[in-house]
UniProtKB/TrEMBL annotation:
Main location per the UniProt record: secreted
Domain Rhamnogalacturonase B N-terminal: 26-276
Protein name: rhamnogalacturonan endolyase
GO molecular function: carbohydrate binding; rhamnogalacturonan endolyase activity
Organism: Phytophthora sojae (strain P6497) (Soybean stem and root rot agent)
Keywords for the protein's UniProt record, in alphabetical order: Cell wall biogenesis/degradation, Disulfide bond, Lyase, Secreted, Signal
Length: 495
């Protein structure tokens, strides 16, 4: 699993994270209404005491901060109670703590590390539509973003205000910068001046919502170069928000290249008494076995995920392997799910106790039809292999780089899966006609058509007509916000 392990011993920070300058000294001062923190390695941060907005990120003499707005949680916390201190540890770690009702933001700075370590505590005493850390960078200095989220001159809005296109039909949006949480340990932007990256620790997503395949906004380059870590959002949300401690996570500055997540040492968080933070000593884990008597998993990618109202975790299981060890988890009872790629094929209830390793077995109980009359695509919870599936997460369906959506006539059992469209849009590529032949014996028996729908919204659903038979399919209620790039699975059976 892509993760940032909480290491037991201090590591030497990679040279890309620390370009020492003899003229710099690690420490902090106050200047007017600001805290000034110097890492001793070329990074100086200025933060307003009243709001904890970061108003200056000076790296090796270059100002990276966007001048008109700050770097902060959400769009700023407003008035907070803030303190700054040097901790009594061997590094004399600098801690800035920012607190108001329902939220507490902690910043940490370590000597000779160009890293801003962070943790965010959020309770339901403060209702927020979303929770994010947002770095706003000066695009004239930090002039390269994630390409799919980079707004270029001449682009105009084609959907709401946040999806834009140029005259050639090339589309861009902040939504196209997302990466599934399970694969998103490091993301960032760079230029000749610096690289700026968000690094998410192994437990960084445990209080977020959405599960391992959820993705959210990482970047938008428009007026400024915005780099974000969304901890909770309403972007195609499928479950209630979790509350508690989010993190640890970090903003890391380099000479340009992305750091390896393992080069950041989050282990010092174990010694901090932060609101809501659960140290490893008070966690447990699961050492599990997957039983798959009918070989449903085959050679597919496998993920085991755990969730309850307070936390979520996941672990990748190599194809062909049937054992796993979870991350260290908060004590509690969890629903464990085995995924064949992104299709839930087995579940179990698992209890995790403090300081213990639970031995559990999860049975793959999903009944896979191994001999259908015909099947289009792989039954794995994704539209992978279908027309435009390789593009749907990174551009708008109307993008000129998309292959034509249709409508089409598809010959089941003859045409390649890549001819069948990943998505069906009302009044755009409907109806889709599927032709097939039945033997006399098959024609005399009742049949079931099963359709897997990773996402449906705005009352969209698959209505099916076969000769004189027609379905009346109810719309999905799983998603109430827009977005076509996040995994929300339902099945439709027409008998």
């Amino acid at each position: 699993m892509l993760s940032c392990r909480l290491l037991a011993a201090a590591l030497a920070v990679a040279s890309s994270l620390a370009t020492a300058s003899a003229a710099d000294e690690f420490g902090y001062t106050t200047s007017g209404d600001k805290y000034i923190i110097n890492t001793g390695a070329g990074l100086t941060i200025a933060m307003r005491q009243a709001s904890c907005d970061i108003v200056s990120i000076n790296y090796n003499g270059q100002e990276l901060q966007y001048k008109s707005m700050g770097t902060h949680v959400n769009s700023g916390l407003g008035q907070v109670e803030s303190t700054i201190q040097a901790l009594n540890d061997d590094k004399k770690t600098i801690n800035v703590n920012c607190k108001k009702t329902g939220i507490e933001q902690s910043y940490f700075f370590r000597p000779n590390e160009n890293v801003v370590y962070m943790g965010t505590y959020h309770s339901n005493d403060l209702v927020l539509p979303e929770l994010r850390f947002l770095a706003r960078l000066d695009k004239t200095v930090m002039n390269q973003g994630i390409l799919e989220a980079t707004h270029e001159a001449g682009m105009t809005a084609i959907e709401a205000t946040d999806i834009v296109a140029n005259a050639e039909g090339i589309t861009r949006s902040k939504y196209y910068s997302g990466v599934p949480f399970i694969d998103d340990a490091v993301h960032g932007v760079n230029s000749t001046a610096a690289g700026v990256y968000l690094v998410i620790s192994e437990h960084g997503y445990e209080t977020s919502s959405g599960g391992p395949f959820f993705r959210d906004i990482n970047n938008k380059l428009d007026v400024s170069n915005e780099l974000s870590f969304y901890m909770n959002s309403d972007h195609t949300r499928i479950e209630d928000y979790r509350y508690g401690f989010h993190g640890p996570y970090a903003l890391a500055l380099t000479s340009g290249a992305a750091p390896d997540a393992s080069t950041l040492d989050f282990s010092f968080f174990q010694d901090q008494e932060l609101t809501g933070f659960v140290p490893d000593a008070k966690r447990g884990e699961v050492a599990g076995t997957i039983t798959d008597a009918n070989d449903v998993l085959g050679n597919s990618e496998v993920v085991v995920a755990f969730s309850n109202a307070d936390a979520q975790y996941w672990v990748k299981v190599p194809a062909g392997t049937k054992t796993f060890t979870s991350p260290k988890m908060k004590p509690g009872t969890y629903k464990a799910i085995v995924y064949k790629k992104q299709l839930a094929v087995g579940t179990a209830s698992i209890t995790v106790a403090e300081g213990a390793s639970a031995s559990e077995t999860i049975d793959v109980s999903y009944e896979m039809n191994t001999k259908p009359i015909w099947r289009i695509g792989e039954w794995d919870g994704t539209p992978d292999g279908f027309l435009n599936a390789d593009k749907i997460h990174k551009m708008h369906p109307s993008d000129s780089r998309m292959d034509a959506w249709g409508p089409i006539t598809f010959a089941a059992g003859t045409d390649e899966d890549s001819k069948f469209p990943t998505a069906q849009f009302r009044a755009a590529n409907d109806d889709i006609k599927i032709t097939f032949n039945l033997t006399d014996a098959q024609a005399g028996q009742d049949k079931t058509l099963k359709i897997g729908v990773p996402l449906a919204q705005v009352n969209a659903r698959s209505d099916v007509k076969a000769n004189d038979f027609e379905t009346e399919t109810a719309p999905s209620v799983a998603v109430k916000t827009r977005g076509i790039t996040r995994g929300v699975t339902m099945d439709c059976e027409c008998a």
